[in-house]
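Exercise 7.
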Amino acid sequence: MNNNFCDESSISKILNFILELQKCAENTNLDETGCDKPCLGPNFNNGFIFNTRPITLYSCCSGALWTMPYTLNGITAESTVFKISKVDGNCATFEILAPNPDTTNQLLPYVSTNNFFTISLDCVLAIRCLNDTYTN
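Solution. The predicted structure, written as tokens, is:
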């Protein structure tokens, strides 16, 4: 049995791909459409495009969903949703995303917290990609 598909380098490759998509979203012409559009999700008329592919992480030790604390607007809570911000070899840095307090906009379920953590990808069993979104 070939286990190369399941090793940490596969996760690193996926995270690097997501990171590149997010970087491309920062420099995308809002008029681009179709297969040539190098960005995440749909374009919106209000001047922004999706710039984030949020993910969840699962622990290699227990298979449990990773939960990380954050503080936003003076309130401390925990989240299981993250945005990849850097991949460095076998380590990755993520921003913790919080639920959007504006619950009237279902297209934007998360906000940036400016809280980050770095982990070894040896500790990650799996990732799950959530729907593309925009984060400030």
